[in-house]
């Protein structure tokens, strides 16, 4: 399976505000961008923020990310495909072979336009030749959003898989919530017009930077949010062997409130990711 790494890369940019007004999401993002970079992601490269619209294939502007306006639709799901593998390594960089450098960044919001921390994002994609690694974990990895609800992934622009347009797979899960499985797409790709799975609502905002590309996409999860203060938890402490701060390896077994679980992905346990709340990390025994 081969791609076309030498295809021309059109310059893709986003337009200015569409005049629909300033949403809470825009204000939150502006405030977060104003913070020093180490407080967000510890990255040295500039962060590319998702625009409200983007030009695709020379046609009318399309929304690249569902605009979070305190009541908009969540990011649409898409099929998992045949090449997902559990137990991917926890990492924010999966540059596992040659190709055009790609930095993907963004935020995860709920329906109330508030960023969500501790969200699991599990990415997988094809290599530069359009092939998936089904033996190891090349171009596969998972990470968690930081305290600002932000994430950043360093990878390469995936090659063209036969019959599909260029895309990146991802599973997104907030603590204690269902998993969103979806795919992200590149604007300006000729195959966007022929791929039956392509959805313009899942277009990233992409721009050329030197010899690489910077992309951005903000996920909106189907999670109701109250703009008021977070209520204080009154749930009694759980029983069992699971403990926050513990580094668990694949196959480790724990008990939580009388139920046994087996670790599916190596990780360090954090509050909010208790076994019954994280089926992506724990499997009931």
From TrEMBL:
InterPro entries for this protein: CBM5/12 (IPR003610), CBM_sf_5/12 (IPR036573), Intradiol_dOase_C (IPR000627), Intradiol_dOase_core (IPR015889), Intradiol_RC_Dioxygenase (IPR050770), TAT_signal (IPR006311)
One GO CC term, this protein: extracellular region
Family indicated by similarity: Belongs to the intradiol ring-cleavage dioxygenase family.
Biological-process GO terms, alphabetical: carbohydrate metabolic process
Pfam families in alphabetical order: CBM_5_12 (PF02839), Dioxygenase_C (PF00775)
Chitin-binding type-3 domain boundaries: 239-285
Region ranges (Disordered): 1-23, 52-97
Keywords: Dioxygenase, Hydrolase, Oxidoreductase
Keyword Cell inner membrane assigned: no
CDD domains: ChiA1_BD (cd12214), intradiol_dioxygenase (cd00421)
Protein name: Protocatechuate 3,4-dioxygenase beta subunit
Biased composition (Polar residues): 52-67
Species this protein is from: Stackebrandtia endophytica
GO molecular function: carbohydrate binding; ferric iron binding; hydrolase activity, hydrolyzing O-glycosyl compounds; oxidoreductase activity, acting on single donors with incorporation of molecular oxygen, incorporation of two atoms of oxygen
């Amino acid at each position: 399976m081969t791609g076309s790494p030498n295809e021309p890369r059109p310059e893709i940019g986003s337009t200015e505000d569409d005049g629909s007004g300033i949403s809470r999401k825009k204000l939150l993002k502006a405030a977060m961008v104003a913070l020093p970079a180490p407080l967000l992601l510890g990255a040295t490269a500039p962060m590319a923020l998702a625009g409200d619209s983007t030009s695709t294939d020379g046609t009318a502007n399309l929304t690249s990310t569902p605009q979070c306006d305190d009541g908009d639709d969540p990011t649409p799901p898409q099929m998992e495909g045949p090449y997902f593998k559990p137990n991917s390594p926890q990492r924010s960089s999966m540059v596992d072979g040659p190709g055009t450098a790609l930095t993907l960044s963004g935020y995860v919001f709920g329906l109330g336009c508030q960023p969500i921390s501790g969200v699991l994002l599990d990415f997988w994609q094809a290599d530069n030749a359009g092939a998936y690694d089904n033996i190891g974990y090349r171009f596969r990895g998972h990470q968690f959003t930081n305290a600002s609800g932000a994430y950043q992934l360093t990878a390469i622009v995936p090659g063209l898989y036969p019959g599909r347009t260029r895309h990146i797979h991802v599973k997104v899960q907030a603590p204690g919530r269902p998993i969103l499985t979806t795919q992200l797409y590149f604007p300006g790709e000729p195959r966007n017009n022929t791929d039956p799975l392509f959805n313009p609502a899942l277009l990233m905002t992409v721009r050329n930077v030197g010899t690489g590309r910077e992309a951005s996409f903000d996920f909106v999860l189907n999670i109701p949010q109250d703009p008021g203060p977070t209520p204080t938890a009154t749930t009694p402490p759980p029983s069992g062997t699971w403990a926050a701060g513990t580094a668990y390896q694949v196959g480790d077994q724990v008990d939580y409130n009388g139920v046994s679980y087996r670790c599916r992905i190596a990780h360090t346990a954090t509050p909010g990711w208790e076994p019954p709340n994280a089926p992506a990390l724990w499997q009931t025994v």
